[in-house]
Design brief:
Layout: E1 2-4, H1 5-14, E2 27-29, E3 34-37, H2 39-53, E4 58-62, E5 70-73, E6 81-88, E7 93-100, E8 109-126, E9 141-147
Amino acid sequence: LILSSGDLQRISNAFHLGWKPLQGDEKTVISSVMTTIGLGDIRQALEKTLEERFPERKFDIDLPPSSYPIVLAGKFASKPEVTSLDYDPARGSFNASLLVQSTGQKKDFTAEISGKLFKLIEVPVLSGNLRAGSIIKESDITYVTMRDGDVGQNTLLDAAELTGQTPRRGV
């Protein structure tokens, strides 16, 4: 933050300090060491913990905007660690404690965050256009990742069920 002599004079007047600049071009620089922990760092820490706890599952993490960024006064490690994670599969919600280690004289910082987890699944889809009557081969199939709740009841999840089939009309 850079304050000009005019800014400093207004502050002095507002607080009745009686300060006056010696010269008209005086400036004061106010700085502070800050550490910002952004959404990417928080997401990365959560994903690492989720992979360790649920290696067979993948999740999409939804954090409310009030969870990030975390701005800390002082020097801290830029990467947070998840120290605890409580997951409620019925609601799809989680609560986690993040630890950000201090690199200076300050104490480590702990933040509590909460959000939603959406289970992700791989859905087979055609990788390109096919004409009516064409036989679907394994090479015609690719996968897209979708939230489990966004997949319809009649959606095929096994690529083997598509292989050997023929579309009724061009797709």
